[in-house]
Specification:
With 159 residues, the chain is an alpha+beta fold. The protein contains four helices and six strands; from the N terminus they run αααββαββββ.
């Protein structure tokens, strides 16, 4: 399945709650479930999903630069929020959802335009009501660390 083009392309809440967070993330990764529109907007895609770990891959282009021509900090933040929170989602049980409560990022260096990166989110803790994860953005070819992050998510049982 491609990236969702309209709200109708996304899963209903009942469909989402009928599966575990890991199954949901794996479905997006393998293309059987629709991907989020933000992936197209920001130029990244879900690359790998494991229990407690998610990797997004992307390449910043000119459309995500600030007025100085460098990659906007919001791009780093969006990518890190996505990978860390989706890592937490892999721990969310059937009948529950999550949302980000807070996140923090540290940009260590500018990503040159056109450099492919991996943004890896890893769960440090997933309990009944909270999930904590860390993330990093690294160059695929150069292995350089471009940014790190941390997040706390709330996990909510709906069914």
């Amino acid at each position: 399945m491609p990236i969702a083009q309209t709200p109708a392309d996304l899963l209903s809440q009942d469909d989402l709650l009928s599966m575990s967070g890991l199954a949901f993330m794996q479905g997006i990764c393998d293309g059987t479930l629709p991907g989020p529109p933000i992936a197209h907007t920001m130029g990244f895609k879900l690359h790998a999903v494991e229990d407690g770990k998610v990797t997004f891959r992307g390449t910043p282009q000119f459309n995500v630069t600030n007025p100085m021509g460098t990659v906007h900090g919001g791009w780093y933040g969006t990518l890190l929020d996505s990978s860390m929170a989706c890592a937490v989602m892999t721990k969310v049980p059937r009948g529950s959802v999550y949302t980000t409560l807070e996140y923090k990022i540290n940009i260590t260096r500018t990503i040159p335009l056109g450099v492919m990166i991996d943004c890896i989110g890893t769960v440090d803790h997933a309990g009944r009501s909270t999930g904590v994860a860390t993330g990093e953005i690294r160059g695929v070819e150069d292995g350089k660390l471009y940014a790190t992050g941390s997040t706390t998510c709330i996990i909510m049982k709906l069914k």
